[in-house]
Write a structure and sequence with these properties.
This protein is α+β, with helices and mostly antiparallel strands. The protein is built from 2 helices and 17 strands. Strands 3-5-1-15-10-11 form a 6-stranded mixed sheet, with no helix packed on it. It has a 6-stranded antiparallel sheet with strand order 4-2-6-7-8-14, with no helix packed on it. It has a 3-stranded antiparallel sheet with strand order 9-13-12, with no helix packed on it. The N terminus is likely disordered.
């Protein structure tokens, strides 16, 4: 894990330097330059019994309603906490699935549940010919888009997309204020004008958008950490990232804007 000690020490030094320009040296102390460490990303739970464990963090601005579904003949998911279906803002839930499981977790902003029209976390925990278990995972917006979802391994997003696609949803496809229908739900061929193009290949935006599936992710053979909301980390493959006031902007501009805000805040500290 990356040590925060040196970066934080550097910030204190910069703060002290700035203070020395505005006050006599005798009045400057390190206590006036306190820098708080950022909260660490929650670590995914790990199962000791061979099950695959999914940890989901709600970083959305509202509570999330969830529904579990499994394929025919599949065992059900085992909920480790949050036995109900509502995930409050900043709440973390976990569930485990045994080998042979195939299913999905549907997510909606609370109060806007529409069956078969939500953002999905999907997976299949299979066994190969050598009896080795492996997991295939994806995020899907094929049925519709309700909330952004990304999943990460070793603190790096590996699938999903954190964009709020409601801002790209044509009026005629807005089933309600928090549900955008996917017009390509039944189309096997790639759509000519994909309204969800900004998340293509990172999440399923049409039924054969298969680059969105990740199989046996190195370092995460038994667990994955997922995050709901635009406040989550973006996928490294995203060209557009969430901006201010619900708009999108090129991801590179986000980094430059944050640098500018950092220095502005530092010099006005």
């Amino acid at each position: 894990m990356l040590s925060l000690e040196k970066p934080l020490r550097a910030l204190v030094v910069l703060c002290l330097l700035e203070a020395s320009w505005a006050a006599p040296a005798s009045e400057i102390t390190a206590a006036s330059c306190v820098v708080e460490a950022p909260e660490p990303t929650p670590e995914p739970s790990v199962s000791a019994d061979g099950n695959f464990v999914v940890t989901v963090v709600n970083s959305h601005t509202a509570a999330i309603s969830t529904s579990h579904f499994q394929g025919a003949g599949s065992p059900t998911a085992i909920r480790h906490d949050n036995e109900g279906n509502i995930v409050a803002p900043d709440e973390t839930i976990t569930f485990a699935v045994p080998t042979g499981w195939s299913g999905r977790l549907a997510m909606y902003e609370e109060g806007y549940d529409v069956v078969d029209r939500g953002s999905l976390f999907e997976g299949s925990f299979m066994v190969d010919e050598s009896k080795n278990a492996f997991m295939a995972l994806d995020v899907s917006y094929v049925d519709g888009f309700t909330v952004p979802l990304v999943c990460e391994c070793n603190q790096e997003v590996v699938f999903g997309c954190n964009l709020d696609l409601h801002n790209m949803c044509p009026t005629e496809l807005q089933l309600n204020a928090k549900t955008c229908l996917n017009p390509y739900r039944e189309d096997l061929a790639p759509p000519i004008n994909n309204i969800f193009e900004a998340c293509a290949e990172m999440a399923y935006t049409y039924p054969t958008d298969d680059l969105a599936t990740k199989v046996d992710i190195p370092g995460c053979s038994r667990s994955i950490l997922c995050c709901i909301g635009t406040a989550c980390k973006p996928n490294p493959s995203q060209k557009l990232c969430p901006g201010k006031n619900g708009h999108t902007q090129p991801c590179g501009m986000i980094g430059e804007a944050r640098k500018g805000e950092f220095w502005q805040n530092l010099w006005s500290f």
